[in-house]
Structure formats: C-alpha cells, structure tokens
Amino acid sequence: MNYEDTKTQRQSGSAVRIRFKSGPLCLCIFLSLWFLTASASAHHGNSAYDEQARVPVKGTVTEFVWTNPHAQIYMDVKDKNGKVVNWGIETNSPGILTRAGWTRRSLKAGDEVTIILCPAKNGAPVAYIGSGDPGTKVIFSDGRELDFKDRTAQ
Amino acid sequence: MQYFLAHSIALVATLTFAPLEMPQAAQTQSTFNAHDLSGAWQFAPGGGGQGPGDNFPSLTPWGRAKYDANKPGYGPKAAPGGNDPILKCDPMGIPRILFVIWPFEIIHIPGRILMFFEGQHTIREIWMDGRKLPDDPDPRWYGYSVGKWDGDTLVVETIGFNEKTWLGAQGQPHSDQMRTIERYRRVDHDTIEFNLTIDDPKTYTKTWYAEPRTIKLKPGVEIPESFCVASEEEEFAKRIREPAARQIGKE
Question: I need a labelling partner for B229 at 20 to 30 A (CA). Which of A45, B57, B135, B188 fits?
C-alpha cells in the first residue's frame, strides 16, 4: 500500500482522496478511514493541517526528535513515481507522549511504520499526529501501535 | 434447591455488608483539606480554545486594533502561520498558561503558593503573607500576584502585566492595565472549581467573566523538564511549521 496522493478535500464527511494498489484490504481501510473522518473532532486547532482527514502514510523512520514542545518524526516515503520523499510529522510534547506511554526510544531510524496522520492542507510532505486529533497513531510492521491516550487520566 | 439457597445467602450477605463498605470507600475518597492544593493538576477539557472562552466583551478601539494585529492559529481568526508569541517561545503569561493542555503542580511553602507549570517549565509565585499589591509594579509576563483564602476559596489577584502575551490561543489581547482575579475552590479530593474574571478597561468595554472550568488532580504525574528553547523551536519551524504554512504555489 503506497500513499499516492496527498490532496485532501474538506467536503461534508468525505475528506480524504487516496488511491490504493490492492483491493479488498484497502476498501476496508478506506471505510475505516471514512468512519474515523466522519467521527473525528479536531481539537489541535492548527489550521495548517487538514484535521478532518486521517491518511495512512507508510515509510521508513529516518529520525525521531524528542524535543519540547513538539516531538517530530521524520520518515522516507515513496511517492507514486517511486521517488523517496522525506516527510516531517509534528506531534505532542515529550510530557504528553510520556503520559501516553512513549519514550525517546519508541521510534528509531530504520523502523518500518504506517502513520495515520492529518496532512498539511497545502500538499507539502508535512503532517500532524497527536492527542488533539483522535485516530492519529503510529502502527509498526508487527502490528504494535503508539497512540496518544493519557494513561494517567482518572 | 441447593442452588437457590446458596444464591439467596450470597444475596443477603451482599445486601448486609455492602452498605457498611460503601461509606468507608466514599470517606477515603472524600478526605481532603480544602486549603491544601498540593499536587499535580490539569484543566479538564473544555471550551475556549485554550483560553478564557470563545465569547468575550466588546473591544475598545485600542483593543480592536491589537486584536486585528494578532494572527492566531486557533479560533475564528485561525490561519496557517501567524504571529502567536509562543511560536518564538515567548512566555505564555497569565491567564493563558493555565488553559494549555499540560499539567501544573501546586506547591505550598511558607508565605507563598507556587505554581510549577509543565508548559515552558515555568514557576509562578503567589504571595500569601498578607502583603498588598504593589502601587507601581514593573510590567511582567506573569504579573504580580497576591492570594488569600475566602472561606474555602483561594482568591488570587494579579496586576502588573506587560502587553506582550495573548489571553488564549485565539489571540485575545490585553493591556498593562489588566487585573485578573482567579478563584480556586477544591470541591472534592480530585476536583477544583475554577473561575476567572478579567478587568481591562483599556482593551474591553466590560469585565470578562471567563467560562467556569474544572481542574482535575493528576496523581503520580511528575512535571518533566519542558523548556521551550528558541533554537529548537526555530529548527522545528524551518523543518515542519513553515513548510506546512507555506501558501500553495509559493516556494
């Protein structure tokens, strides 16, 4: 499954336009995305990102930056022409991530991951994932996931 | 029959002993000192877009000009990019830092209450030794705060602000004439009710009564080192924020 088109639309409930190479599995994913999209509430509030969209992007982590107030994930992603593009993904502060069970070692260069993200509206290879946008997360190739649920919440 | 008998005994036992246990559990949970707010706390999710509220009083012409110049990333004026002072790690100030999505610790020491915010790793002091507010305070990011107990409510009055901070992420402005009054009332072990009034006649035509909010205890949370470091933020802006905010078609 390659991410092929970063364009998004902000139309009633239908926010993501993506094409997949394989059939039924991707239909399932698309329907899941549609559900997530329809039910997602955008709280992060950074207007540069399409927070109604939840787009899966697969790639190889190149760097995980553990700095306050925005940790960052960088990863190489193949576009539709096979060209590798390095994506930058903004996420929460180390404090929030720690309370969600992350550590500075949660991601490392070479990890194969799929990230469910809110892409930039302008189509640049940058995106947001975090506690403000439920449904965004990191999925490892072995199925493990990193999400943003506060494990200290009462 | 044996089955019925066993269940009847279990039911009677449950009804007999449950009332004895429940008040004990409730009592443990309700044991707290209303004048001791020690611990890590965080605002429960609420409206207001990480600020005092979505609705605010009419602006004066001075306030309107300042509001128009503010370009927030949140709320009705939201646009990519913008000039939110925190993008350069400027101190958030009072009251904004209270509303962010990070916890803060309340620490009682003789003569003072300290608030230690995870946001920007900041300590704010509230003088509790009966002193008056200064007549001519230097302008500060966090102002000058004195507090007192009114029954079980901690009342914190602050003046002496600079004009550089926003009241919330939506870009509402204030002037150096702002006076804030915060009220904290611990209503149970885990909960503080919070009220805030903002008086700033240079910016707003009326007193702003912020939306009441709830603050919840966060047991076991340690405030990590969480400075906002301008050089790191600048690097982040170059790599992610600016590409995300760039207008389509412009490189």
Answer: A45
pLDDT at site A154:
66
Kindly state the average pLDDT of the residues B186-213.
Answer: 97
pLDDT tens, residue by residue, B77-109: 888 889 999 999 999 999 999 999 999 999 999
Tally of CB atoms within 10 A around A95: 23
Chain A contact probe: residue of B86, B101, B189, B241 with most A CBs at under 10 A = B101
Nearest residue of chain B to residue A154 (CA atoms): B218
CB contact under 8 A, B75 and A45: yes
| List of chain B residues whose C-beta atoms are within 8 Å of the C-beta of residue A8 | none
A57 against B47, higher pLDDT: A57
Q: How large is the ipTM?
A: 0.84
CB contact under 8 A, B50 and A45: yes
Mean pLDDT of A12-36: 39
Cβ <8 Å between A94 and B240: no
Structure confidence at residue A24 (pLDDT): 42
Q: Is B14 on the interface with A (CB under 8 A)?
A: no
Residue A132: closest C-alpha in chain B? B101
For residue B149, pLDDT over 60 is answered with yes
Interface touch A68/B226, C-beta < 8 Å = yes
The DSSP line for chain B is -HHHHHHHHHHHHHHHHHHHHHHHHHHHHH---TT---EEEEEPS-SSTTTT-S--PPBPHHHHHHHHH---SSSTT--SS---GGGGT----TTHHHHSSS-EEEEEETTEEEEEETGGGEEEEEE-SSPPPPSSPPPBSS-EEEEEEETTEEEEEEE-B-S---SSTT-----TT-EEEEEEEEEETTEEEEEEEEE-TTTBSS-EEPPPEEEEE-TTPPPPP----HHHHHHHIIIIIHHHHSPTT--
| Residue B161: closest CA among B199, B105, B205, B127 | B199
Output the pTM of the full model: 0.82
